[in-house]
């Protein structure tokens, strides 16, 4: 009798495991955009139609410092569980997606120098045998080869201040973390042949298909903005959004968020925007130039999907930006209990912004957030936690998969779509 019960239990367990459907593998012709939820900041991984891939950011902030500074707010757990760091979580995710024998990153683009986008050196950070500390980007890049690395100001790092000698942490750029990045870049460049480049504003040639570009003439990644410069839409011409003097007007202090890079990915009729932590708020505490989104919007144009600026914080995603981009699918690479800002949440769910209702997906939304802004937001969004994967098919249709961030594989929680690119 006992053996029969155990046999039946095994069958039930096997059926349950089979029911946990895994994300179907990428196929040639697909554009996959993975928004990876580590609980420690932003990380997106794109597999382009010919198999070329690209990572945008790999954050790992100091959760203990965050908890101490912003109590009673708190950082979420590391996903999938506490045995992981953010870097090892990303490595595990890429291993699931690519397979162990194909682990490499063709392009890594760092949007700006805040720890939730590239890591924070702490006392608990490991040390590579190559001499640099392991956190976020450096932990990922220590295991998975990065072929080309791009950031906003290589090699000078002198806008708006000299970041190499920035011992005060101006801009929110942690001195030890930035110096560790330089050590990592120097080693990888000299020993492993990694190319290191400055983000080329206006270019559609910096991030290109490497394996079979002729088969996908309708694919393009366009560089829109970096530092204080915005593409004009003509050639490689740029215009200044603000001056160094305006940026440093308040006692010489600045915020590196406004330095963020921004790109548009286009595949046929499908368009996707990603712009780091660019801002869009003008109020009694923020001058006109702080609104980067409004002048950037017409250069981006209408999109099918977007990653929200600044994780859905209240200083970004203004109404004009949403009106012009008018996305159907919105992803917030969120991680804090104050994500989203209440005003941003209202705009995202309003039927009076843009031409259509938006489907909003958040990588992390804590129930306690709803105590502050009310239950209306959580009732109106499609996902409150998980890895958010946008899969674009060759015919322009696309789907959104929500994956269980608490599992170490690619288990599907729910699938949305198909959507049709406009």
Task: Describe the protein in words.
Helices cover 25% and strands 21% of the residues. The chain has twelve helices and 19 strands. Helix 3 (86-98) crosses helix 5 (137-143) and helix 8 packs parallel to helix 9 (319-325). The strands form three sheets. Strands 8-7-4-3-2-1-17-18-19 form a nine-stranded mixed sheet, with helices on one face. An eight-stranded mixed sheet has the order 11-10-9-12-13-14-15-16, covered by helices on one side. The model is unreliable at 1-18 (pLDDT under 50). It is α/β, with parallel strands linked by helices and 422 residues long.
Q: What is this entry, summarized?
A:
The protein is an alpha/beta fold and 422 residues long. It has twelve helices and 19 strands.
